[in-house]
Structures are given as C-alpha cells and as structure tokens.
Amino acid sequence: MKEIINSVGIDIGTSTTQLIFSKLTIENMATSYTVPRISIVNTEVVYRSNIYFTPLDSSSNIDSENVKAIVNKEYKLANMRPEDLQTGAVIITGETARKDNADEVLSSLSDMAGDFVVATAGPDLESLLSARGAGTDFISDEDRCTVANIDIGGGTSNIAVFSKGTAVGTSCLDIGGRLIKVKGGKITYIYKKTSELAAAHGINLKIGDRADESVLRKLADIFAKQLAMALGLLPKDQYHKGLYTNDGSPISEDIKIDGITFSGGVADMIYNPSGENVFRYEDIGPILGEAINDCSYFSGVKRYDAAETIRATVVGAGTHTTEVSGSTIKYEENCLPIKNIPVVKMSEEDEQDLKSFSKKMSDKMEIFTNTDAYDCVAVAISGNFHTTFRAVQEMGKAIVDGLEGYNKLGFPIVVICENDIGKVLGNTLKVMAGLDKKIICIDNIFVKDGDFVDIGEPVANGRVVPVVTKTLIFNR
To answer: Lowest-confidence range among 34-38, 66-70, 247-251?
Structure first.
C-alpha cells in the first residue's frame, strides 16, 4: 500500500525568503509477519518558489504582513491550499531569527499547514540544517572522511562538520554578503563588527562612501581567510575570536578537515563565478564569493559539489516515517503524547568510549537547550554495545551524567534506542536519575541527528507507542 502526502517548507533567512513543496511517497515495508514499518520510498520536489528578499519594516522587525503575502502568493502559484498539506516546516534563520517579532511570524505561518516542525533556528542548529541540505553528511559517510560545510548567507557563515556521516562540530561567524549594503554606487549600511575588522586592517569604510570594488575586495579577502582559519586551514589571528556569532565557540582544533562543501546564497558565486556587475544584489555577496573561490588556503582540502546551495536550509517539511515501538519499552503515565522533540544522535564510536560519552552528549544537547525553543530533547543511541545487564547500567550512568544540567529543567528524559533494550535501560535511568524523574525510553527506532520525533499515546492496551520521525527533507 502506497500513499502520497504533500509537504511544504518555508525558510525566512537574513537575505531571502523561499518555499519548497514536495510530494512524499510512503509505503508499509513490513512483511505480514512483522509489525508495520512505514517508510518514505520517494521524495519529489514539485515546486520551488521564487527567491525573495526577506521583508523588514525596521531594523528590529520582520514585516509579517509582507511575509504572509509572499507565502500566500507562492501557495497559489504552486496550486496548493493549506488543507492539501499534511506536513511542513517553518524555519527562521540567521540574523532574522533575532528580530523582535520572529516568534509571532512563526506562529502565524505555522497555522497554514498541518503539524509543523516550527523552530527559530539558532546558529548551531542552522549549521546542521544547511549542511544536511548541502548533502555534506552523505558525502562524509560515503567517502568515510571528515567534511565541513560553510553556509554563507547574508549575515552569517554557518559551519557544520561531519565525520563518517556523524556531526562532530558546529560553529558560526559573523561573515556574510549583506554585512555591507550598496545602492546607487554608494555604501548604505555597514555591520558594526565588519567596520571594526576593516579598520583594524587599515580599510576605512563609512556609510555614504563610494563603493570601490578594489577596496571591498580587500575586505572580502580578509573574510575568506577568516573562514579558512575557522576550519583550521591556517593559524587563527588576533581578530578571529571576535567574529563568532553571539561569542560562540570555534570548531575543535582536534578535528582535521578532509573536504569542504559550500552552501548559501554566496555559494552560487563560488561554484559558478560570473562576470556580471558585482553589486547586482546591492551587497558584497558576489565579491565575497570570488574571494573565497580564489583563496589558496582552501586548496589543501577536496572541494565537493553541494547538493543544494542557496536552498540548502529550506526545509521541505518533516519527512514522516511512522514506526511503532513496543514490548521492550519504558514510559510513564501522563507523559504522552509529546511532539516535535529534536534528536541528538550519538555515534557508535561515542557509545564505545563511555569516558567521553557524557561530555559529548551534553555538548550536542546544548545546541537545543541553550534557547527557550525546546522544552525536551531526545538522546538517540544504537544500544548495540551494551546488551548485558551490567553494560546497560554503565550506559545508563553515562546518559544520566550527560543530562546533569538538563535534568534541572524538569522535563522528561527521552531516550531512543535502535536495539531492543528500551525497558531495561529505562528502568535503569529511573533508578539512577531519581524515582521522581519521568522516563520515556523506546527502542527499534532509527533516527539521525537533526530529526524531530513525535511519540503518540500508547495503543494495543499500552503495549506499543506510535512514533513519527520527521527528517528534514532536502532535494538531493
């Protein structure tokens, strides 16, 4: 039995706003002797919207009415109605996520279709989304190497690194194509941090100056070198630390990059250089793309083609993979259903080294817990290396240690296992975390970093729970 569902993704970024509509074909892949397992068997992007400059009505507010008008227009052009859609996602990213009314815009747009994965993506989460859209995780997995993606947008450059398919680091710098705006041959806007970096290198820029291509190219060359520093391709200078968004952290120096992909609006000008007017977008994006393309420091690693560039962060709605988890699970009354829970997936290498497991888990969870966007986060493991009673206790202790700060939030502990150890691990967590702590521990569910899950109310007399995995869909 096959079924087709319609999906929409809406991305409101620093520079651009865009939509993608997809058709997802789902099918029950189970035999008559096993429990149902519904999977996505085909994904087809059926409509790509025009790309719009994100409308703002002031420096601190998204123009919500114009955003809604864009969305309504594209729905009509795609011949779609809200009632035609079963799923979708709205993501506000980059500098736009920090506008005063971002949550209000999200809320109003999320009503336009189904049960959305709705998120104001912080810099770390945006890094993961764009890298997966670029296909960096797949490249890293297929070539069994470490590949970084740099998503260069209007306000920020988001970096995510994958090693053998697993996310190992994220970072974000205030480097982007619209940090200097140009109109009528003159500079009309300069981001404060950009002005300071330029001045430190003897480049004096001010609003109203003539937009001198040669001068702005010098600044773009500095930006390109700073991005190379962020990947450890040359030593970091005295100015580098100050470029991280929200005083964020750099990629670990222990990570050695083998390859690189580029995404974001500027990436189009890296992969496809053009001799057109460099100020055609009224910013320095084309100049920055040329500078990165010419930067010799990137030549020491393999450059891969990205599956997507400017559309990498567009979420084509959550790919719904409905599964059931039962028989060997642990859950508590009055905890279910829970929806839109982001997943932190630990690698098998992490599971085999419990000495570092807790710290790595805590660091990955912080991507979601350092904002107020998510009340609950799920930890996912394979469970393949801890199947004896003693080994399960050791894994339980490592998980509880990694949740030390998170436990203070007062939300359920949610653990997802691939192997059928859910009940014994759940009982272990209940004892170790404290009997007053609510535990949801399910198994036989396969998820990835960046997925979201819904766990429904128990069925079959409480023996099983339905699980919907929402994988961020990108056109690959």
So the answer is: 34-38
Q: Name the H helices within 348-410.
A: 348-351, 354-369, 389-402
Amino acid 122 reads G
Report the SS3 class of residue 277. Answer: coil
Single-letter amino acid code for the residue at 61: N
Q: Is residue 409 a contact partner of residue 369, using CB atoms and an 8 Å limit?
A: yes
* C-alpha 461: how far from chain center: 37
- Residue that the structure tokens 């939030």 belong to: 409
Q: Say if pTM beats, i.e. exceeds, 0.70.
A: no
pLDDT at 137: 87
Least Cα distance to 475 among 73, 53, 46, 148 occurs for 46
Over range 29-57, report the average pLDDT. 69
Q: Can you list the domains of the chain with their CATH numbers?
A: 2-121 (3.30.420.40), 125-303 (3.30.420), 318-472 (no CATH)
Token couple for 394:
């050791």
Please, what's the largest Cα pairwise distance for the chain?
73
Residue 475 clears pLDDT 60, i.e. is over it: no
* Cis preceding-peptide flag for 342 (omega within 30 of 0): no
